[in-house]
Amino acid sequence: MYRIAVDAMGGDYAPKEQIQGAMLAIKNIPDIEIILYGDKEKIKEYLTNDERIKIVHAPFVIPMGEHDPIHAIKANKETSSMARALASLRSDEADAVVSSGATQALIAGAHILVRRMKGFKRTAIAPVIPSVSGKPTILLDAGGNLTIRPEYMLQQAYFAKIYAQEVLHIEDPVVGLINIGTEEGKGREFDNEVYQLFKETDLFKFYGNIEPKVCLDPPCDIMISDGFTANIVMKTIEGTAKGMGKILKANLTSSFIGKIGALLAKKNLDKFKTAMSAEEIGGAVIFGLYKPVIKAQGASKVYGFYNGIRQAANICRAGVWDKVSDYLESQKGDEDE
Amino acid sequence: MYRIAVDAMGGDYAPKEQIQGAMLAIKNIPDIEIILYGDKEKIKEYLTNDERIKIVHAPFVIPMGEHDPIHAIKANKETSSMARALASLRSDEADAVVSSGATQALIAGAHILVRRMKGFKRTAIAPVIPSVSGKPTILLDAGGNLTIRPEYMLQQAYFAKIYAQEVLHIEDPVVGLINIGTEEGKGREFDNEVYQLFKETDLFKFYGNIEPKVCLDPPCDIMISDGFTANIVMKTIEGTAKGMGKILKANLTSSFIGKIGALLAKKNLDKFKTAMSAEEIGGAVIFGLYKPVIKAQGASKVYGFYNGIRQAANICRAGVWDKVSDYLESQKGDEDE
After folding, report:
1. Fewer Cβ within 10 Å of end Cβ, chain A: N or C?
2. DSSP B32-69
3. Angstroms from A184 CA to nearest CA on chain B
4. Based on the domain organization, do A269 and A186 belong to the same domain?
5. Which residues in chain A (130-169) have CB-CB distances under 8 A to chain B?
6. What is the side-by-side order of every strand in the sheet holding A137-140?
7. Which CATH number covers residue A73?
């Protein structure tokens, strides 16, 4: 049985959709049990079946856009549903956390309450972004380490490879380095160091440099850069999708034909825009923590949240964390700082 | 009279459209004369009116995608239409260059044959990108200086401000620093140094940090970062626009309604996609050279190329270069390295 800790209070439609998502997960996934962290009374309103579901009372919700998430987590360690769910990983009461609560608070909380896995130097936030072909692409590090040593990026890329292989079922996942040109030697000194390291490694297949003009149709499964650059890429994708949506809307007031086209295409683009929103990085996993933390979309409804739980169960079942741990163990002489 | 040097041979539809564009410019802009650099025989085929137009024979064309643009420029200094046009700036035979030839060759050639203006430390490539509101936004440095000192970025931002004010007629242009968060203190150490410098300057109005999720709808007129980051932003915008175009196309095979919507909206998105293409950064100006060099779109037709010439004339007439020179002169004690 995998024990999934669910932050029942975080998210636009919490706790209703989270609780219904949890019940759906229990129904469809036989090898999990769920611990719901939240307001006991409110949870009971929606929980119509408590099979394999426990409740832990933790009613406080850290608001979206909280300016000081670190303080918010620390000050509400005992009462925040998110903080309690996260703490359950370190105390080994649960195997994974799923939350659709405030992203910044979740990241801060994860670092304070879950902490890194032994030997893993820098965690990475890894959203899965849509692509033209329909094949998912992992983008990392979408935030966190603005500067990083190439060796630490090697660890992150390896983690992403194991994840892509075991959870996304991509055979022999390929890693691409985000850069301003495709040829070897392009980019900053840092990018070149990473390139050389990746070129020589046996840990994963390295495609080489990829320019972000292929960001939605990449020749690789994993796109990696430092936490500054990858965050810029993620937010530029979001901004362009948003902007193009608005331009389409503006067409509503232009020609008749444009009007109809815009109206009809809008729905598809809106869907895409939501999928790409930085606040909404749905199903983003934080790599390198002691145990898996999954950020479900803030706007998650039943099915979306259920998917987050399913993802958590898949990660546990596939033994992603163990596989990475085994590798780190094998890297003797490395000292955790 | 402003003397515009035109590379008649560079571009997908050269020399026909370039020559027709030049004749259109002569007709509409009374205070310019044009020097056409190219294959004399071919030019004569299309040149039906040589009023205020001179021809300099330079038939060689540096191909798009040339792998070693520096070598290509150096090896064909006497015969390349692009190289000869660029060299005319340094020899004071012309006041500005317009070319729709290979971007990398043009940049390399500009650095070799035109060189920087006195006191300006790092040139910047500054495409004007479309926005939701229709107001143009200057993005820089879209390529060139992967790492740069904050003081040099101050010069670049000031150049962009003068350009926005004098050529784009934006009153009191506002500069935004591309960053991963909006609050002061966000980003790398470098971004913070730039922030502090921009915050204290009287040279332009500083908005503060802007996240690229507003890249097509920014609260500023100029978006600036180092040459690596701004290039990543430009290419991610291009990639997202391309990808969304493909996703729309994919809808053609989905539902009937989606099909119609996609068909009708496609034309508008295609237009946008072209406008955003990195190879096609239309009317991108290189800031900080001895004299202005304008990169017109490779796919320029008559009107597009005419616009490039008009832009060159506007830059000359507005005295952008002189204004920046005056400022640099006033910064005594600065030594050109």
Report:
1. C
2. EEEEEEE-HHHHHHH-S--TTEEEEE--B-PPTT-S-H
3. 13
4. yes
5. 131-132, 143, 146-147
6. A128-129, A137-140, A222-224, A174-178, A205-210
7. 3.40.718.10
pLDDT of residue A136: 87
Cis peptide before A141 (omega within 30 of 0): yes
Query: Do residues A41 and A86 both lie within one domain?
Result: yes
Place of tokens 């409740």: A55
Contacts of A238 in chain B (CB under 8 A): 212-213
Residues 174-203 of B with CB under 8 A from A: 178, 180, 187-188
Put the strands of the sheet holding B284-287 in their side by side order. Answer: B53-57, B32-38, B2-7, B96-99, B293-295, B284-287, B124-126
Q: Determine, for residues B216 and A240 on separate chains, whether the beta-carbon distance falls below 8 Å.
A: yes
B124-126 and B284-287 strand pairing: antiparallel
Q: How many residues in total does chain A contain?
A: 337
Kindly tell me if the per-residue pLDDT of B248 is higher than 70: no
pTM of the entire structure? Answer: 0.89
Indicate whether A149 and A267 sit together in one domain.
yes
Higher-pLDDT residue of B279, A157? A157
- Shortest alpha-carbon distance between residue B262 and chain A (Å): 6
Q: Domain containing B39: what range? A: 1-120+288-337
A188 with B235: Cβ contact below 8 A: no
In 3D space, the residue among A256, A328, A248 whose CA is nearest the CA of residue A287 turns out to be A328
Torsion of CA B155, B160, B161, B163, to 10 degrees: 130
Query: Are B213 and B104 found together in one domain?
Result: no
Could you tell me where the beta strands, DSSP code E, fall in A193-324?
205-210, 222-224, 284-287, 293-295
Determine the residue of chain B that is closest to A247 in CA distance. B132
Residues near A76 by Cβ (< 8 Å), separated by ≥ 6? A60, A62, A83
Q: Which residues of A touch B246 (CB under 8 A)?
A: 132, 216-217
| B236 contacts on A by Cβ (under 8 Å) | 212-213, 215, 232-233, 236-237, 240
H/E element, B210: strand B205-210
In this prediction the ipTM stands at 0.88
Supply φ then ψ for residue B129, to 5 degrees. Answer: -105, 150
Q: Which of A74-83, A197-206, A264-273, B175-184 is the least confident region?
A: A264-273
Q: Give the number of domains in chain A.
A: 2
